[in-house]
TrEMBL record:
GO terms for cellular component: plasma membrane. Signal peptide: none annotated. It comes from Paenibacillus apis. InterPro entries: ABC_BtuC-like, ABC_transptr_permease_BtuC. This is Iron ABC transporter permease. It is a multi-pass membrane protein.
Amino acid sequence: MTKNVISGVENKDSQPRLYNHNKIWTKPFIVAIVAVAVLSIISLFTGVYDLRGQEDGIQMFFITRVPRTAALMLTGAAMSMAGLVMQLITQNRLVEPTTTGTIEWAGLGLLAVYLFFPAPTLVLRMTGAIIFSFIGTMIFFLFLRRVKLRSSLIVPIIGLMLGAVISAVSTFIGLLFQMTQNIETWFVGSFAPIQVGRYEYLWIIILITVLIFIYANRLTLAGLGEDVATSLGVNYNRIVLIGTGLISVAVGIVAAVIGNLPFLGLIVPNIVSMIRGDDLRSNLPWVCVLGMGTIMVCDIISRTIIMPFEVPVSLILGTVGAAVFIVLLLRQRKPRRLR
């Protein structure tokens, strides 16, 4: 009995059969959806404002609570997908928008928009963040092509160094032109300002999800390396460009609307890949659902840990994500010690 690892097909007596873990609609996945639905209900009714005891409680529910919960779900899916696609393209599980400098480039794009437009609209801020995210991600990939040593630790270190440089440049420009206060909310990602009229552009993420699902098989082949992808008839450079563009749009929208959300794209894709492998098409629904659940749990904690005040959700995400990042680093080093 032989197994085909890439396609997820097990051959027995010449009869192909899909692995169970490549199926999408399984009992665990349905349980995960139910859990996310429960978390969304908890999120809708979590907050300091008494919805039942106020005359405008119903209005406030639809003005603030519903948009916030929708923003949480869309943002969780976006950042998790971005991390999954980046990990496939770079063939490295420690890569995501935070560890490649992409999110820092988005912040620089926001700052550049504020320099040229004193009171930019949300569309202008999104455009600047998307363009600079794309440029920064492509620069990161160009650096990787120049680096001969491509170990699992070197790649995120390069991204972190690039991000640190861009962050320093953004801080210097902000101080020089006295514009740090304009983007200070970006450095602390929070869903507190979300309400009707300030989150609707996040619905574009649904389109990004559909496009990633359409290109899923080609992105998976690109994750096998340039030589393998080319031999299988895939234009490697084109699919990497498309993947980078989709990542940039998702990260740019989130950066402009919400702010910096560290390590979300690192935690969720790694958990899913450890359990299910690296098939993007079958993993994408799982990544979206678990991304939604993760960020909603962090947001509920941020709203209740020091009630009636609120902790930025990026603080909770950063703490959890840093711990997961350390665990992944230790897992990468363990095989070397065993040798």
